[in-house]
Amino acid sequence: MKHSAAEILREYGPFPGAKTVAGVSFDGKNVWFASGDRLNAFDPESGQALRSIDVAAHAGTAYDGRHFFQLAKDRIQKIDPDTGEVLSTIPAPGNGGDSGLTWAEGTLWVGQHRERKIHQIDPETGAILRTIESNRFVTGVTWVDGELWHATWEGDESDLRRVDPRTGKVLEKLDMPAGMGVSGLESDGGDRLFCGSGNAGVVRAVRRPK
Question: Whose CA is closest to 89, among 106, 75, 74?
Fold first, then answer.
């Protein structure tokens, strides 16, 4: 297993009216994050806050190229990004104990926090297609270039880990500095991993190793 310190490229925020950062997503241009009662967008180049959508947003956020998917307690909402309308909902597999959300391979991947699991689910029904076990709390999940990464946060320790999507075996680990927790994780499709920070209210960009 490769093991190194996380290289933090930049910190964004805090943002007006957003006391917490839960789920994080990327729409190909802007970063979006969940802050409890709304989804917020900012430009990752300038750091400027852009817009927000008033919608329940308690944990993970995902984007499929057309819609947002947002964890709201025990449900996953499908949201129109233009109007903010909730188009449909499905049950979340963790029944409210869910903590990360991403889109890949035409399906949703959901972290189940204290159960230390990642579920691949059907985005139409919520049916669980497969489950990967972790040995740490799961607080964010993302796919990039065929790599599955998830965030952990227990006590004052947090890391980002690349895992085998078949077995859950840890292949690579990036340790965050002490006291820097990660809540929510998303890739920009390149060398940046965007990390939520819980009540610290910021988003951090971490370099993804080549």
Answer: 75
CB of 30 closer than 8 Å to CB of 50: yes
Phi-psi region for residue 192, left (φ > 0), alpha (ψ -120 to 50) or beta?
beta
Instruction: Round to whole Å and give the CA distance between 21 and 199.
Output: 7
pLDDT per position as a tens digit, 58-92: 999 999 999 999 999 999 999 999 999 999 999 99
Q: For the range 177-182, what are the long-range contacts, defined as Cβ-Cβ under 8 Å and sequence gap of 24 or more?
A: 177/5, 177/6, 177/8, 180/8, 180/204, 181/139, 181/153, 181/156, 182/139, 182/140, 182/151, 182/152, 182/153, 182/158
Taking the model in full, what pTM does it have?
Answer: 0.96
Q: Which residues contact 82 (CB under 8 A, 6 or more apart)?
A: none
Burial group, residue 167, by CB count within 10 angstroms (0-12, 13-18, 19+): exposed
CA distance 8 to 159: 12
Q: Compute the distance between CA of residue 76 and CA of residue 205 in angstroms, rounded to an integer.
A: 26
Pair 199, 30: CB distance under 8 Å = no
Is 44 in contact with 12 (CB distance < 8 Å)? yes
pLDDT tens-digit series, residues 131-155 = 999 999 999 999 999 999 999 999 8
